[in-house]
Structure to design on (163 residues):
């Protein structure tokens, strides 16, 4: 079995790749993980998971959000609500780090996939294996091939064919 990458290397690489202008770290662990990957022009904001709803409304939209180690402070409903708000309103790209053996706040892999997150990969944080999930608005839903004017009624064809 190949060795898993270190979380301390994976998250900064993702942040560096994205190059966000505004970056949100939910929790001190997330702040420590993203710090090596941010550029000088990046505005970094750190908030705790508890009470995040109010802080998110004050901070507004972010280019990227990273959540690590803070979801356990919330109820399953509260964690799902916070992730949904981040995904829908406050960040174009959301990365969630969860302990592989103990899902945060009772959220299972099915729950996170149900919220639109996909498993980006595994990593090691200390001696603990973790899952890294992402929600990227740019790649979340691709346009299917069948959804184009060739397969639908076109005004150009109204006089040529009878439906």
């Amino acid at each position: 079995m190949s060795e898993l990458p270190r979380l301390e290397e994976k998250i900064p690489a993702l942040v560096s790749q994205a190059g966000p202008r505004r970056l949100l770290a939910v929790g001190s662990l997330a702040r420590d993980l993203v710090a090596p990957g941010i550029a000088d022009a990046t505005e970094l904001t750190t908030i705790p998971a508890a009470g995040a709803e109010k802080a998110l409304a004050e901070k507004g939209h972010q280019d990227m959000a990273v959540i690590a180690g803070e979801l356990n402070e919330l109820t399953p409903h509260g964690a799902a609500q916070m992730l949904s708000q981040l995904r829908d309103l406050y960040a174009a790209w959301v990365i969630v780090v969860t302990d592989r053996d103990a899902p945060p706040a009772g959220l299972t892999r099915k729950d996170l996939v149900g919220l639109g997150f996909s498993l980006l990969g595994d990593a090691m944080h200390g001696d603990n294996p973790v899952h890294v999930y992402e929600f990227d608005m740019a790649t979340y839903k691709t346009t299917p091939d069948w959804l184009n004017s060739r397969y639908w009624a076109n005004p150009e064809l109204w006089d040529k064919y009878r439906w």
